[in-house]
Amino acid sequence: MTTNAEQQSLLRKLPGVDRILEQTKCDPFFKDIPVSVVVESIRSAIDQRRQAMREGNQVNVEASLLESQIVAQVKTAVSMAMTPNLRPAVNATGVVVHTNLGRSLLAPEVVENLVMIASRYSNLEYDLSAGRRGSRYSHVEDILCEISGAESAMVVNNNAGAVLLCLETIARDKTVIVSRGELVEIGGSFRIPDVMAKSGATLREVGTTNRTHLKDYIGALENETGLLLKVHRSNYSVVGFTAEVSLRELAKLGTTHRIPVMEDLGSGTFIDFSKYGLMKEPTVQESVATGADVITFSGDKLLGGPQAGIIVGKKNIIDQIKQNPTTRALRIDKLTLAALEGTLRLYRDESQAIRQIPTLRMLTRPVQDIETQAAKLAAQLKSIGDARMQIHLIERSSRAGGGALPLLELPSRCLRIRIQGLSATELERMMRYHTPPIIGRLEENAFIIDLRTVQDDEIPFIARAFEALVQRV
Ligand SMILES: *Cc1c(COP(=O)(O)O)cnc(C)c1O
């Protein structure tokens, strides 16, 4: 503990902001840093020292040493202030469409076009052949129709918006019949009953949690019925004694009673994953062919594009949606549009889509390939040569994520890492604090790196993170 007199003498040594600012002026580290950032960092560094002195936590040192300690602290603060909050991270969780880590990565050729559109003027809403105002939606409408087989298409900001917009346009002030087993909640508080309420439509739930029959829908039909809605369960599954009404049966019922039928596919895919040894997911093309009047799905889940809400269906309904003023509020941004168009173009050739769209490539990645990468990382970690590190190559399953294929377990290869003297939670935290952050998972007091979702060029980052870590502990 410092005495009051000592504390006073310490506090007197504390330099002013101007004095430290003067020192930073001749230090090349601060050359391109805005002065406001430097001043703010100096203030906070001095405040912290003052606080430490008052609490008796500051060793009494020479004034010049104190100043250089403060300058070092200012450098750390400046580095933090200059790093964007939104930054790249390594996804070592094995969850391919990881909502918290940005869902889908864009293909490199898609990014190239995106950068071009971002930095130049474009024909976003300009019809080049007519020389007058055009529609931003036109850039993706044709290709969406071409791939899905639908009559018409349009896109908004995200799928939650797409569902809201469709319900409001088709069923405002009317009732919408949905099976009780399909009243899902998706992460980030998207709940079908709440979206329904917001749209001004009235929910008419039918059936039970596990079983819903066609007669339940028929029994609920009334004059006010405006829509039959089918929702993909996305992130859960009903197994055991179950029954549900197929889209085909609903479409037939809708045709008979002249009531439109909508399907919220959630993830939405153009590719039949069962061809690649994965589980069957209903494709957009199948839903269109089955006769749904309108179908909504996400751009950044299994599709592997940017965040977007895609709506395909019958022309008369899509035309009504385009007229709805809410469409303007959910308008898709030009960068998203550029990325979406680029991604959709890759779907013209399925094998190309699988090769080039990262989400599809990771989902269909051969386990041998993952094992090779795991072995490569293990070798790099072992070459650090720290005897405290225990590294094992193990077999685990990865997941599709993003509210898709919840039961699917993709056989994968992981590294299980332990460092003697360091708990797994500490290890996990230090990896998370690293630049770039490395996000893995914990299992039985070990840190697990699933190589399925680690990009090849990220392997050296991980090795370097461990190298830096063992030097510090
Ligand atoms: C994910 C999902 C949504 C929401 O889509 P976003 O693109 O996240 O807005 C809506 N409905 C279902 C069934 C979903 O799976």
Walk me through this protein's architecture:
This protein is α/β, with parallel strands linked by helices. It folds into 3 domains: 4-82, no CATH class; 90-98 and 364-472, Alpha-Beta Complex (Aspartate Aminotransferase, domain 1); 107-356, Aspartate Aminotransferase, domain 2, CATH 3.40.640.10. The chain is built from 19 helices and 18 strands. The chain has helices spanning 4-13, 17-25, 35-54, 63-82, 108-119, 138-148, 159-171, 192-199, 214-220, 247-257, 284-290, 315-323, 326-329, 334-346, 350-356, 358-363, 367-382, 424-433, 459-472, and strands at residues 90-91, 95-97, 126-127, 132-133, 152-156, 175-179, 185-186, 190-191, 202-206, 225-231, 261-266, 294-298, 309-313, 389-401, 410-419, 438-439, 441-443, 446-450. The strands form 5 sheets. Strands 5-13-12-11-10-6-9 form a 7-stranded mixed beta sheet, with helices on both faces. A 5-stranded mixed beta sheet has the order 2-14-15-18-17. Strands 1-16 form a two-stranded parallel ribbon. α5 packs antiparallel against α14. The longest helix has 20 residues, at 35-54. It is globular and about 90 Å long. The structure holds pyridoxal-5'-phosphate. Pyridoxal-5'-phosphate binds next to α7 and β11. Pyridoxal-5'-phosphate binds at residues 158-160, 163, 184, 186, 190, 231-232, 234, 264, 266-267, 298, 309, 403.
